[in-house]
Enoyl reductase (ER) domain-containing protein (Penicillium vulpinum), 381 residues
Amino acid sequence: MVIGKAIVAREPVHPLTVNWSLEEVDVNSPGEGEILVEMRASGICHTDIVLTSVPNGELGITYPKVAGHEGAGIVRGVGKNVHTVEIGDPVLLSFYSCSSCQQCADSHPAYCKDFAPGNYSGHPNRMSVHGSGEELWARFFGQSSFAQYSIVSEASVLNAKILLENDNELQLFSPLGCGFQTGMGAIENTTNAGPADTVLILGLGAVGMGAIMTAKIRNCKAIIAVDRVKGRLELAKSLGATHNLDTSSPDFTTLDDAVRKLLPNGVSIVIETTGVPFLIEQGLQSTHQRGKIVLIGVPPLAYRLSFDVTEQINTGRSILGCIEGDCVPQIAIPQMIKWYREGRFPVDKLIKFFNATDYQQGLNGMKDGTVIKPVLLWTGQ
């Protein structure tokens, strides 16, 4: 057992808010197929916020728990039947999959039959509050990386020993395991976008920026970035967007109108990362015949998308869900690192580092749009 600090999420006091606090915790020894990781860094993802802002019992969530699912660190212990890492190895972390169901066997681990319980719910008996012994749900997304030390499923681990050129890259690459990966995979896997495609990207967080960079890499004919934060729109242009649409502009009417002023026929692909209902609906209308809208952002839980079935039949439009970009992390993360070294996936322009004790500053930056990807540093706690 080791003692360290962790961000403990308790049931929200107010709806749609988080109730996080930095606390001292006891971390158990790793069991079979598990690894003890000393975290160096962990990105904050919108999913961490969504899945710690719902009432106890909703979506299978149990409190108190430790979230975090874009971790990076050093292996400090290994359980039985661990084959991919040794003590001292640097690791990058991503989501959990069972490795044995049909979807996993077919190289679609994000659609693992156990994805929801294995990632959203987590497991007990790995971590507890120091002193009181209060049980914490851990192994969130196989890792619970909002902690100095955590028990991690081997399925969530990528050995980074041959991927890193220096120690600082471990913290730089920590957020590749979810947000950037999701945007990258939405373009590369879910839609297989290419030079003939016109792409509309709604929302310029890490997912949206990952999609923009990948659409540029795949030479998409037009890349339209949509957001309400001017700084993000300017950055998107530098990363490859060919057009910007500012939804906060007084000249902005509807998304469909704005898109068709640029491309009268509409776009072939919409990447929807916001979860905002009116953007989902207008995004669908912005696609041309046989176009695709990819749904990534989580809308309000009670929201239901309604559409004219006959119109869908006549237009041949596709509505696609997307988890983790349908990526295999052991393939996607090295690919993004390769692109980074080539100057085509500059995640360093999109990340801001915070001491783990200053996690609230990272949350505030996400909320006001000034920070695209906050990354918490756990060294020196």
Q: What stands out?
A: The mean pLDDT is 97. Residues 329-341 form the longest helix (13 residues). The CA atoms of residues 277 and 302 lie 11 Å apart.
